[in-house]
Specification:
Pfam families: TPR_2 (PF07719). InterPro entries: TPR-like_helical_dom_sf (IPR011990), TPR_2 (IPR013105), TPR_rpt (IPR019734), Ycf3 (IPR050498). The chain has 186 residues and is mostly helical.
Length: 186
Amino acid sequence: MRNLKPKIILLSILIALFAVYPRFASSQEVTPIDQVNVYKQVIHKATEKIKENDKDIEAYRVRGIAHYKLGELYRIVYSPVMTKEREEEIFDEFALAAKDFTSVIKLKKDYYTIYLYRGICYGWMEFSESAMKDFDYVIEHDPKNAEAYYLRGKEHWRRKEKDQAKKDFDKACDLDPKYKGEYYRP
């Protein structure tokens, strides 16, 4: 029964969102405003779950992913007209996501996917050393994780460490062919 709890939480959030935003359940186009509202609803519902139980890993994970997705959405939508205020808003979403992912890690140290998400957030926040530590941690504990090599390669690329980036991209491609052709998409 305990294994069903995260699925029940996520399912209840999705049901609530489809009730509030029927366009997600239909063929109508979902606008960025709809997406923002959904992510904010998810954040609200997950926050309620955390208030009920501050050890709820799934609630922290879901809320962290919603903050992460919101940051990504703002980054895409705001990119044509970026202002200092909008950059701060994006930074804040990634910081909140990283904080939630850290809460998950404190409760379950071997949740490697969360290290990847947190590393991505650190990368966007330009905390390159912290991002690298998260990707290194995953690679150390799960050496066949192609995504970790790919993400570490992207971080090397941002740092203009082209040789290290190429090695990580090559390793990611060796482990999973879906990463072929991803070299220059950091």
